[in-house]
């Protein structure tokens, strides 16, 4: 590590520790801080169209706010958003809208979510510093500093008629950090501007393999890291040639100017190439630490339905610690993880104003909302946010469970997206229940499930769940029987529905290898960012269903 890198790491560590202590201090006074945030948002936006409509100057506390301003969903903002997109100011927020973050489109039409300089700064500071400060306290190995491999991009998908850039929320966040990226991550900025995922992954790997002292790998989702190692398995001989010569393979379709810039940043490393080649020839179990001995952790969202990817990831990383750093949405940061190998998140009281709807009231016309200090451990709620980008009492439609408190701030575990429940006769089978049943089935049969999704088959009088599963084994005879058993255990209401003949036994179709990659490509075609692509666990989109149906491998009734 050079003197410059040592100095930067020292400054980074100091800043991370500062923001960590700030975060802890805020959680000790969570309700007070959260009310302060609400007051600031209302005061700053009194002269906006929305602020005048709801008489913000007359709102003096959170009780007034919840009485005057209704709970909202995205359709309530569409006309405002189009005005902002056309260039109008002071519509939802007094701050200029710098960027529209596009939702992933996984569960429906893409939404344009306004992003201001203030909201971007909040996200950047928490992702860049606070989460690293937390990590330094939770995992001593993270204190060594050093550079990491970042699997994100800076792609901009377009510009509105008023000149506002659009793209994924994560792409916008990475753009805001581009000045410091080369000091903390191995991939040059040019790689983060490549739209072809396979080419980008190849280059991410090439530059990471140059860095013997790599200390972490970071991506939004574990599926991206699994795909990265898949590219490594397929292309390592060519990667070693490139590492040896210090020149990128001519087979890679790159623009001449991009190739020239990247080649200039490579150095021939024949000895390292020879040493790494021997590691590849020894197999893939635990390959990550054999390539990078100082690798301390992997950072990605590991809970909920993403758990299906963890077994395959562990093959490469051999149970490296996993830090599920951030729980957030394009609309707002929700929380930060304070523990390793746990997908639970402490609400960040200084990032937005939060309310919570008890699940028993989610479908009522006027649901009650609770504040940070009013939640019960073990209960589940839908999250509502008021942010610095012009969304007020906005229902995220994320359902979370409160697992405890960190000082005065609740600890949340993601459960499911509202509307993503499998539900035929009131049984409401959650994404988490399906994931548990799928995981237990795979474990019982000693197979690896690459990916899965489900839909409701309502063709007959009594409906049933229809699963599409991609698995790496031919020994699938008992899969349906086991999945049925474990799903009944995970959701007793589903079992009662079967016993009462209100639900028919489930159906499984096994699909060909690569089918779910085709779903990802379809999401990309619709405008989702590489950073956002995630497989929906309940599919009703006709195009998605057509892809699944056209790639069936085995039909199990």
Computed over alpha carbons, the radius of gyration is 24 Å
Principal-axis shape equals globular
- According to DSSP, the number of beta strands is 19
Question: Total number of helical segments?
Answer: 19
Strand order of the largest sheet: 9-10-11-15-14-13-12
The average pLDDT score comes to 89
Residue fraction in strands: 15-25%
What is the total domain count?
3
**Spans with pLDDT under 50 lasting ≥5 residues?**
none
Helix content: 25-40%
Distance between the termini: 59 Å
Q: What class, by secondary structure content?
A: alpha/beta
| Largest sheet composition | 7 strands, antiparallel
Protein described:
- The chain has 557 residues and is an alpha/beta fold.
- It has three domains: 3-118 and 354-417, no CATH class; 140-162 and 180-320, no CATH class; 431-556, GMP Synthetase, Chain A, domain 3, CATH 3.30.300.
- Helices cover 39% and strands 18% of the residues.
- It contains 19 helices and 19 strands.
- Strand 7 (297-299), helix 14 (310-317) and strand 8 form a beta-alpha-beta unit.
- It starts with a helix and ends with a strand.
């Amino acid at each position: 590590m050079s003197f410059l890198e040592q100095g930067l790491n020292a400054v980074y560590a100091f800043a991370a520790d500062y923001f960590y202590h700030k975060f802890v201090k805020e959680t000790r006074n969570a309700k007070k801080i959260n009310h302060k945030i609400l007051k600031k948002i209302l005061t700053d936006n009194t002269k906006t169209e929305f602020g005048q409509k709801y008489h913000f100057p007359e709102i003096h506390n959170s009780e007034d706010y919840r009485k005057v301003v209704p709970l909202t969903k995205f359709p309530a903002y569409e006309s405002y958003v189009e005005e902002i997109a056309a260039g109008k100011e002071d519509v939802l927020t007094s701050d200029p809208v710098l960027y529209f973050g596009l939702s992933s489109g996984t569960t429906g039409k893409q939404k344009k979510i306004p992003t201001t300089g203030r909201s971007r700064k909040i996200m950047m500071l928490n992702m860049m510093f606070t989460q690293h400060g937390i990590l330094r306290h939770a995992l001593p190995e993270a204190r060594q500093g050093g550079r990491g491999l970042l699997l994100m991009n800076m792609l901009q998908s377009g510009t509105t008629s008023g000149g506002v850039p659009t793209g994924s929320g994560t792409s916008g966040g990475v753009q805001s950090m581009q000045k410091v990226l080369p000091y903390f991550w191995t991939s040059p900025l040019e790689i983060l501007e490549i739209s072809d995922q396979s080419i980008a992954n190849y280059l991410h790997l090439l530059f990471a393999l140059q860095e013997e002292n790599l200390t972490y790998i970071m991506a939004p989702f574990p599926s991206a890291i699994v795909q990265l190692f898949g590219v490594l398995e397929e292309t390592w001989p060519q990667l070693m040639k490139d590492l040896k010569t210090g020149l990128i393979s001519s087979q890679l379709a790159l623009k001449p100017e991009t190739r020239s810039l990247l080649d200039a940043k490579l150095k021939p490393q024949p000895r390292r190439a020879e040493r790494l080649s021997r590691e590849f020839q020894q197999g893939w179990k635990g390959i990550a630490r054999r390539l990078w001995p100082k690798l301390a952790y992997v950072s990605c969202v590991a809970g909920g339905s993403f758990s299906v990817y963890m077994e395959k990831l562990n093959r490469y990383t051999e149970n490296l610690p996993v830090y599920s750093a951030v729980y957030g949405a394009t609309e707002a940061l929700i929380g930060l993880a304070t523990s390793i190998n746990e997908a639970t998140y402490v609400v960040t009281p200084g990032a937005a104003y939060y309310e919570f709807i008890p699940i028993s009231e989610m479908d009522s016309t006027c649901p009650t909302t609770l504040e940070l200090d009013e939640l019960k451990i073990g209960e589940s709620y839908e999250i509502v946010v008021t942010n610095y980008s012009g969304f007020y009492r906005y229902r995220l439609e994320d359902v979370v469970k409160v697992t405890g408190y960190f000082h005065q701030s609740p600890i949340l575990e993601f459960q499911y997206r509202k509307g993503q429940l499998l539900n035929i006769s009131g049984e409401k089978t959650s994404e988490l229940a399906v994931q548990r049943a799928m995981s237990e089935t795979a474990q019982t049969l000693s197979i690896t499930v690459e990916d899965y999704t489900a839909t409701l088959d309502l063709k007959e009088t009594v409906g049933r769940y229809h699963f599409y599963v991609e698995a790496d084994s031919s020994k699938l005879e008992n899969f349906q029987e086991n999945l049925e058993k474990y799903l009944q255990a995970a959701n007793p209401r589903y079992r009662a529905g079967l016993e009462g003949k209100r639900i028919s036994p489930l159906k499984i179709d096994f699909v060909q290898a690569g089918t779910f990659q085709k779903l990802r490509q379809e999401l990309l075609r619709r405008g989702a960012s590489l950073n956002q692509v995630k497989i929906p666990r309940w599919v009703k989109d006709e195009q998605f269903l057509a892809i699944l149906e056209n790639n069936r491998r085995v039909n199990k009734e």
